[in-house]
Amino acid sequence: MSDISIRNVGRAGRITLNRPKALNALTYEMCLAIEAALDQWRDDEAVALVVIDAEGDRAFCSGGDIAELYERGRAGDFAYGQKFWADEYRLNYKIFSYPKPFVSFLQEFTMGGGVGIGCHGSHRIVGETSQIAMPECGIGLVPDVGGSLLLALAPGRLGEYLGITAVRMDADDAIFAGFADHFILQDQWPDIIKSLEETGVADAITAAEKSPPNGTLRDQQAQIDALFAGEALSDVLTDLRNDDSDFAADALKKLQRNAPLSMACTIEMLHRLRGPSLTMEKALDLEYRFTYRATEHGDFLEGIRAAIIDKDRTPQWQFAGTDVPTAAVGKMLQPLGKNALNLKDTGMKNLTIGFIGLGNMGAPMAANLAKAGHKLRGYDVAGTTAEGVEAVADIEAAAKGADVVITMLPNGSILRQVAAQAIAHMAQGALFIDCSTVDVESARNTSQAAENAGILAVDAPVSGGIGGASGGTLTFMAGGTEAAFAKAKPLFDIMGQKAVHCGDAGAGQAAKICNNMILGATMIATCEAFALADKLGLDRERMFDVVSTSSGYSWSMNAYCPAPGVGPKSPADNGYTPGFAAELMLKDLGLSQQAAEVVDADTPMGALALELYKRFVDEEDGKGRDFSAMLPRFEKRSRNG
């Protein structure tokens, strides 16, 4: 069963969150699916409005699914979270500025990421069970997904109070604070939704609206304004400690659970946002400055560990028991420069893309493009296909009339043959992207053939393996003109987390060859070290704890550890089922030495790595195993073989 249901019903575009056992927590894939649907419905005259609701009676959406963010961050992969938040914030902005009515039904818990998709539309409906909150400071973040805008607009100092205490609002409180618009008894919701679907107008909402039971915030307003008006977190804490009311004592107790750095930054954000210049763009930009740095420099990983992973509820926060320095707040909220949040549409929606080569890497890459709203035509000599991709009979059918053709092929010889056929059927001004790992000369030959036909070309081999292809977290190393790279970049952003323009045609392949020569050599060294540690009687977990935080740090150790049961999950924990097959490493090392010979470069470590992987694949049991399966090879060997 899918995590989300997106369909057209009558005059309505319908979205239903469908993870009730997970309190409808929002995954990255769900964010992308909602965005793609909104883009499609924006100009569809048959869709008059959008309705979003959720399955189950425990939550509309309890927040974002943060387990993956934690695992990636713990492995040193900060770019994944940065991409997740950037894409999520773009969705929040689209909901906030959507030109058609956007109606949300918010039962039970609506928190964090749920606020981002449920509290920015034109009609926000709450009922008897609704509980809305921004609890991010409790996990080392700040109120985000546009929540800082709502907090800054809330009456008086409600924003500071709600933002740093994570107090839950009932229906009346949510309406008073500006997080909701209409109270309707929940047994009437199915009829309201049916009317919206049938008519495409929101009249039924107003007709069914009632006054909610009294909440608490209206009566507490004066006290909140007096106690949460300080310029900094330290001022608020002082005012609360000097007040002997039960309300102040309860607020202090709530604050003691949360990250001091997050609370201090929340207060600073709200102070910066308030005023006539307040916009959603400004709020999201400020939020992203914090979340961009949260995994590496903030308390996010510790907050998740204490709340979700170990569940010991005893986080070791930065600045616990002390005032948060102004400099620390400034560091988290300083502008990001070239990494600043970009909310603009790319203009690369609803493209027709021909994808040639739907193997273990190509298929999930194509599927991610299809999920993002593009029309995919796919061809593979083996007859394989991918989710959301139309299978076609040959290269011509994939390339003819396509805005973009993407290839993922085994070697340079095949690339040259396929490119020649595809380019012959592409229109001038179209884009050819090759994501294969091939020799530099084949990449340059293909680029020149495209240029001669008036077609933009990019050679963009990838790093990240099958997991990265499936998760949309690949790194692209791109070669080609500035114009070609700029046109390809929005597609790289869908399929991956990072794209680097390395230079002219062939530079992408050169970067990939150099990168994987390093990877092959460091994996061998990592496996050798574990085998040596075993024979020295050193516990593997303790070795990992030392090396992963000292000068032996590497991707092979920290993110892709070859020792089963040590560090983050890797192919070693699955019997060395390939994430990146040993024979592919052998191929890449061969390309590196071929390139080194052409330019007369001395690469003895690369040559030795090639020799070892050739023996491992051709003469031992390496074929069909992950390249990290070098470890059991070394475990069984002595110095003399």
TrEMBL record:
It catalyses: a (3S)-3-hydroxyacyl-CoA + NAD(+) = a 3-oxoacyl-CoA + NADH + H(+); 3-hydroxy-2-methylpropanoate + NAD(+) = 2-methyl-3-oxopropanoate + NADH + H(+). It comes from the Bacteria. Residues 13-329 form the Enoyl-CoA hydratase/isomerase domain. CDD domains: crotonase-like. GO terms for molecular function: (3S)-3-hydroxyacyl-CoA dehydrogenase (NAD+) activity; 3-hydroxyisobutyrate dehydrogenase activity; NAD binding; NADP binding. The keyword Oxidoreductase applies. Its EC number is 1.1.1.31. Residues 506-631 form the 3-hydroxyisobutyrate dehydrogenase-like NAD-binding domain. Residues 352-503 form the 6-phosphogluconate dehydrogenase NADP-binding domain. InterPro entries: 3-OH-isobutyrate_DH-rel_CS, 6-PGluconate_DH-like_C_sf, 6PGD_dom2, 6PGDH_NADP-bd, ClpP/crotonase-like_dom_sf, ECH_dom, HIBADH, HIBADH-like_NADP-bd. The keyword Nucleus does not apply. Keywords: Branched-chain amino acid catabolism, NAD, Oxidoreductase. Pathway: Amino-acid degradation; L-valine degradation. One of its GO terms (biological process) is L-valine catabolic process. Belongs to the HIBADH-related family. This is 3-hydroxyisobutyrate dehydrogenase. The lineage of its organism: Bacteria, Pseudomonadati, Pseudomonadota, Alphaproteobacteria, Rhodobacterales.
